[in-house]
Each structure stands twice: as C-alpha cells, then as structure tokens.
Amino acid sequence: xxxxxxxxxxxxxxxxxxxxxxxxxxxxxxxxxxxxxxxxxxxxxxxxxxxxxxxxxxxxxxxxxxxxxxxxxxxxxxxxxxxxxxxxxxxxxxxxxxxxxxxxxxxxxxxxxxxxxxxxxxxxxxxxxxxxxxxxxxxxxxxxxxxxxxxxxxxxxxxxxxxxxxxxxxxxxxxxxxxxxxxxxxxxxxxxxxxxxxxxxxxxxxxxxxxxxxxxxxxxxxxxxxxxxxxxxxxxxxxxxxxxxxxxxxxxxxxxxxxxxxxxxxxxxxxxxxxxxxxxxxxxxxxxxxxxxxxxxxxxxxxxxxx
Length: 307
Known about the structure:
Structural class: alpha+beta
Mean pLDDT: 86
Distance between the termini: 57 Å
Helix content: 25-40%
Strand content: 15-25%
Largest sheet: 5 strands, mixed
Low-confidence stretches: 1-31
C-alpha cells in the first residue's frame, strides 16, 4: 500500500515539474505582459526596468536555488530520522544529549547561506536607492556582474505624496500637479472597462519611455505612513510624513503599470492604487505642453484613450 502511494506521488510530482514550463508559457501568452497581477499568476510581474531585472534574476536564480536546496536537505533529514530512529528500528535510544560537530554545522551552514544570499540582495537594494548620475552602472539582469547596465541621469522628477487615501503627484520641474483617485466600479465600467478592478484610476501618472525618472516620495504632514510600490518597475519605498525619500525607474516599454500602497495605512488602505502610464517621448512632450496650457483633462486628451 505504502509503495503504491509513493509511486503515485512520484508520478504526480514528475507531471507537475514537467508542466511548470508549459504553465509559465501559457501564462505569458494569456496576458502576462500586463502591468498588473492576473488571476492565477504565480510568478513576479514582468520586468520593464533595470531594477526589476535584478530582482527577477535574484529571485529566479540564487534565491530559488538556495530555498530549494534547503527544502531538499531538511526533507532528507526528516526522512532519515523517521526511518533510522523510529521505535521499531531503534528500540533502545542513545543516552547522549549533545553533539558538538552537529551543533557547529547547523550554526555555520545557515550563516554561510545568509551571506551568499545577502551579497546580491544588498546590491539590488543599493540600486533601488541610488539615483543614476549617468556614470554609475547597475547590476541589471546579471546579479554578480557588479555593474553592466548603463542608466542615464534623470530627465524628470516626480513628487508623489500619500494622502488619506489617495495620491497627489507633482511634476517638480514644470510646477504641475494633479490628484489620482481610484475609480469606483460604476465609473470604471463606464470609462475604462478593460482596466483592472481596484487598480484603475481617474488620472494616470504620465511619464516618457526610455527616460530615467526620479521619484520623490512623502506623505501629508498631518497624515500617516504609506508606501509607494510598482511591481513591474521593481520600486517600493515608504512615504513618511515630514520626510522625503527617493527612488527611480527607467521603463523601456510603453503601457500602463499598476501598483498600490504597500503599508497598512488605515481604513481605505486597499483603495489607493498607483497607475503609471508610460508613453513615447513625443506623446509626453505633447502631454506636458497641453498640461501647461490648461489642466490634466486637456493634457490627457492628447493621448490615446485608455479602454
């Protein structure tokens, strides 16, 4: 009975491993390119920035291998203990209580594992918090390259302010500002039915493609702590009242990319999404020119309507 069960479990496991690449491919073909999570999605959102390239490489590479090896090792030890030291196989237990070698090994191995994981982790974190100057290189898709991706200096500065519970944005260099609110279901179905529920907003933050954007993040001085996060960009940083934090991104593909406040900030925490629309440089120039001459609605009218 036990042998049949193990054989069935082995067959199921082999089938699952064989189907994993197929499922991943099907997911991409089914809309994985979207800038928001999809039903049944099991992987990170698709990267469109150098920072997210590093995060994806770190996750799929050294982190996944480390976790897998740890799981296999612990499982093997558990099976060995169950088989070797059960009451039937070992009716007379040993009388000792310590083993110096084992204690050293189980202390040193986790330290080594953490060091191996921390090296690329700190590199990725440093990249997120260091705004490009046009000279410093970034890790990019190769975690251990120690600088292969050249990123230009910022051409645009955006200030994002977390309110209770929505976002205010300012184009710092152009002295332009607007507010971003989540669309309720009635408005979403009427104006943007193709956009995701609880993520679609009235006014997207519009930025140009292939441009380094400096993002200054804070929160209302009389408010609470929020967090500005856009998974496809690989950015996540706290919005703290009275403090100006900074991160950056350089998106290489046009489209609409969504995020959310990632800090528990109160009763409407789940209803303050972030929507960034990446457009061509020509479209952005027309957008800003119209914004300067009028308001956000006039500027948005220069872009293709989002369905």
